[in-house]
Design goal:
It is built from 25 helices and no strands. The protein is globular, with a radius of gyration of 25 Å. It has 570 residues and is an all-alpha fold. α7 runs antiparallel to α8, α16 runs parallel beside α22 and α19 runs antiparallel to α21. It has 3 domains: 192 residues, Up-down Bundle (Growth Hormone, Chain: A); 210 residues, Up-down Bundle (Growth Hormone, Chain: A), CATH 1.20.1250.20; 51 residues, no CATH class. 49% of the residues are buried. Helix content is 73%, strand content 0%.
């Protein structure tokens, strides 16, 4: 209690201080992401220049490593049911395999910069890629759920360490005149989990087996690490001492794991009728509260929570997190339910999302160029309204119609790709407005972490809503069925004509009712998302206006584009 009071007093003194005092965290250079804010992005003086072939292989190695990390989010979403079946657990555990990956990836983001200063950027990248390879190997060979979840968590953590590092290492090797091309090249990989990832993972699961998704993560990370080591061995940065908020990290990790466990197990354990879940939830909330108090009183905090005092950052980052949560939640619910309810193969389910690729990347490129010429609130509001239109449109489609698995939702998915490409940039511009370059990197770090945490909560929350609405519709369908009305008698007659009598007819009716209820539940899920997107489109106008800006220096434009690309990384 005394410690908490002391920390509260320190907090009050700091809030009353001037801006310079509030900027003490700027002195702690967050190397991996802060490099995007100053001249270290330029080619390093005194180092050998890579030849054309060497430069090509460096691009290949760094982009390959980044794509591998991202594909472990989107590709696994379409093969998770294969994993649960092979491991002998219920389909509800599929969400566990994704959410703990997201939690670990989120925890890695604030640690990456500190480790890059202590270990060196190239050494850290190599070590993280090798560790991710070992974690993938564990996932590929284990038959136990605990060890599989451990492997997924390690995959997410070590993969998350490489996301900011790989972009920094690549950008440093490009001359100033070619940096815009590097930014565009890098952003191609950012949207791959939502466009190509599910179809690629589904193809692997259907043709080679789901474990091949992890077997491929053994040689390919080694190849990426070998190329980076061979080409950048003389780029080792000097090691420095840098303070690290270890207590804050442990408090945050404990809070996130506890709260995510409640979300994952709530439906199976009947939520707060379980004493165990109540205890875990209380521990998680206490750890989270203590983390907030600790960070606000810490001189070198893990995350700069004072950024939430700024209205634009609070609104922009929360909106981005909630938007990503809804988008990824709808994607995961759709992929799993198409396989469970309608019997789609993993590849067919993933292919439903392929139309996203048509406009996602082109729209992202256009948005990068025009965002500073328009009011950011207007662009964000229009984009979110289009998301609401997409969700309302999809809520009227019968995804389980076996004759139209691809053609029917084609144009709706093209619209989603358009929305996906324009989602990140205006909201990132909004919450970065008015911040110094140093605080912008801290804002991207905190905002990116919130977005990843939104993805971790997406699957259990939207899966819960779908299951509740499905049960509701199924009960209503059963209530409305009576042997004494003409419609029900006609159905029974058709079943008898097909050779189904007695219990067989009852089982068939139950199956049809369950499938129809699942369709209605999925419609309700998309309809809920449409209303939520409409609410977000209104909330964005509470932010301060960020109007059109005059042309800025080329280097400043490249730096902001790099930060926006990092926000697009899942």
């Amino acid at each position: 209690m005394a410690l908490a009071v002391a920390q509260s007093n320190i907090l009050l003194l700091r809030v009353q201080g001037d801006d310079c005092k509030a900027m003490t965290t700027d002195k702690n250079a967050r190397a991996a992401w802060a490099t995007l804010t100053h001249d270290s992005l330029s080619a390093q003086v005194g180092k050998r220049t890579l030849t054309g072939v060497q430069f090509f292989f460096l691009n290949f190695g760094l982009l390959l490593g980044n794509i591998l990390v991202l594909f472990n989010t989107g590709a696994f979403a379409s093969v998770s049911l294969h994993a649960t079946g092979d491991l002998g657990v219920s389909p509800s555990h599929a969400g566990w395999m994704q959410t703990y990956y997201f939690i670990s990836l989120a925890l890695a983001l604030p640690v990456s910069s500190w480790l890059a200063v202590i270990v060196g950027e190239v050494r850290l990248y190599l070590a993280a890629m090798i560790a991710m390879m070992l974690a993938s190997l564990l996932c590929a060979v284990t038959g136990d759920l605990f060890w599989f979840l451990s492997g997924r968590a390690l995959q997410g953590f070590f993969g998350g360490l490489t996301i900011p590092l790989s972009q920094t290492l690549l950008m440093r090797e490009y001359p100033e005149s070619a940096k815009p091309f590097a930014v565009s090249l890098w952003s191609i990989a950012a949207l791959s989990p939502f466009t190509l990832g599910p179809a690629a993972g589904g193809w692997l699961a259907d043709n080679l087996g789901w474990r091949w998704l992890f077997y491929l993560n053994v040689p390919l990370p080694l190849l990426a690490a070998a190329l980076v080591w061979a080409l950048l061995f003389d780029r080792q940065s000097p090691q420095k001492k840098m303070p690290f908020d270890g207590v804050g990290f442990l408090l945050l990790a404990a809070a996130l794991v506890c709260l995510q466990t409640v979300l994952n197990q709530g439906q199976d354990a009947d939520w707060f009728n379980s004493i165990q879940l109540i205890s875990v939830a209380l521990v998680g909330l206490l750890m989270l509260a203590y983390f907030i108090v600790w960070e606000l009183a810490e001189r070198s905090p893990l995350l700069d929570l004072r950024l939430f005092v700024r209205r634009n950052f609070a609104i922009g980052s929360i909106m981005l997190s909630v938007s990503f949560m809804m988008m990824y939640g709808l994607l995961s619910v759709l992929l799993v339910r198409l396989q469970v309810v309608a019997g789609y193969t993993s590849f067919l389910a993933g292919s439903v999302l392929l139309p996203l690729v048509f406009l996602a990347k082109p729209m992202a490129s256009v948005m990068h160029r025009v965002v500073h010429r328009f009011v950011a609130r207007l662009l964000a509001s229009i984009n979110i309204l289009l998301f609401a239109l997409y969700c309302g449109w999809v809520s009227h489609y019968d995804f389980f119609g076996r004759g139209g698995w691809f053609a029917q939702p084609l144009w709706a998915q093209v619209l989603e790709g358009f929305c996906l490409g324009g989602l990140f940039v205006p909201l990132t511009t909004l919450f970065l407005s008015g911040l110094t370059p140093r605080r912008q990197t801290q804002a991207v770090e905190l905002g990116g972490m919130l977005r990843v945490l939104g993805g971790s909560a997406a699957s259990p929350l939207f899966g819960l809503f779908w299951e509740r609405r499905t049960a509701f519709h199924q009960s209503r369908l059963i209530e409305s069925f009576s042997l004494h009305d003409g419609w029900s008698s006609e159905i029974i007659a058709r079943l008898h004509a097909a050779g189904l009598h007695g219990q067989l007819a009852t089982a068939k009716l139950a199956a049809v009712a369950g499938q129809h209820a699942a369709i209605l539940g999925l419609d309700d899920t998309f309809r809920l998302a449409a209303w939520l997107f409409l609410g977000l489109a209104a909330v964005v106008w509470l932010a301060k206006p960020v109007g059109p800006k005059p042309p800025v220096a080329v280097k400043e434009d490249q730096r902001k584009a790099s930060l926006e690309n990092l926000m697009e990384e899942p």
